[in-house]
Design a protein that fits this description.
two-stranded antiparallel ribbon; 5-stranded mixed β-sheet; alpha/beta; 48% helix; CRAL-TRIO domain-containing protein; single chain; 7 strands
Length: 285
């Protein structure tokens, strides 16, 4: 049994495979044919990606087993990594250890929600010391978490939900964000992240949040826009999407208040260094 802070790499259960069949068209026959076709497309392309079955599934599941779409997603990832090479080239967990261990700005819940989705909270308010941690460092940490999340078949199939918590946000936080940073984050989420982003929830937004939203809004496409929800301090609204039985007391849930964070999660990243380095080889030939 994996521990609460372990990445669950176990094979999908029959229940999970039933979800995959219904939502992703995944059957043994479709999977085998798509893997074979994607290998052929990859070999004939200018892309350099590992082509083992587990790795190809990372791209086939979010694209519903259409090989051409999976290849396009791979190309988007390669383009993104090329565009932001200075930030992402050979990025390993130790490069962002301080964001996890010392500052605790990002926390992955140890439980999933009622739909089996991974839950994560990003603290963009009082917990964020902008004099010490830049938006670039936060993004690098988020990118590292993505590399771990795609290892989980359950997350590949059920997807992920992110909560952005703006409690205590001040003008210093607003000034620490940029149009370039907003564009980078949204390009990543919408085009270059092989995860099913099922919802993004904003909570505890102060009035000045409108200034932050003005940075992000121009880059939000229709599909993601439909999955973004703004709750303020009304946690009952959040519970309409994530049932309170699956949320900690911090967010009006019935689970205990969070007593863990990035410090507890960080060793997990180090355990999967081989995969992260494998991921870092992805790009153009």
């Amino acid at each position: 049994m994996p521990g609460p802070f372990d990445i669950d790499t176990s094979a999908p259960s029959a229940e999970l495979l039933a979800v995959a069949k219904e939502e992703l068209r995944e059957t043994p026959e479709v999977r085998a044919a798509a893997i074979e076709e994607l290998r052929k497309l990859l070999k004939a392309s200018d892309l350099s990606f590992p082509d083992d079955e587990d790795f190809l599934l990372i791209y086939l599941r979010p694209t519903k087993f259409y090989p051409e779409s999976a290849l396009k997603l791979m190309r988007n990832v390669a383009e993104f990594n090329k565009s932001y090479k200075d930030l992402l080239h050979n990025l390993v967990p130790s490069d962002v250890k301080d964001v996890f261990v010392d500052h605790g700005l990002i926390n992955i819940f140890t439980n999933r929600d009622q739909k089996g989705r991974r839950l994560m909270v990003v603290h963009m308010g009082e917990a964020w010391n902008t004099k010490v941690v830049t938006e670039d460092q936060i993004f690098r940490a988020l990118y590292t978490i993505q590399k771990l999340a795609v290892l989980e078949p359950a997350t590949q199939i059920n997807g992920a939900v992110v909560i952005y918590d703006f409690k205590g946000m001040g003008m210093g936080h607003v000034k620490a964000m940029s149009t370039g940073g907003a564009k980078r984050l949204l390009t990543f989420i919408q085009e270059a992240c092989p995860l099913r982003m099922k919802a993004v929830h904003f909570v505890n937004e102060p009035m000045i949040f409108n200034m932050v939203w003005s940075l992000f809004k121009p880059f939000v496409k229709e599909k993601l826009n439909k999955r973004m929800f703004f709750h303020g301090e009304k946690m009952a609204k959040l519970h309409e999407h994530v049932q309170k039985e699956y949320l900690p007391a911090n967010y009006g849930g019935t689970l205990p208040a969070l007593d863990y964070g990035g410090k507890e999660w960080y060793p997990t990243a180090e355990k999967h260094l081989d995969f992260i380095q494998k991921w870092n080889t992805c790009g153009f030939k």
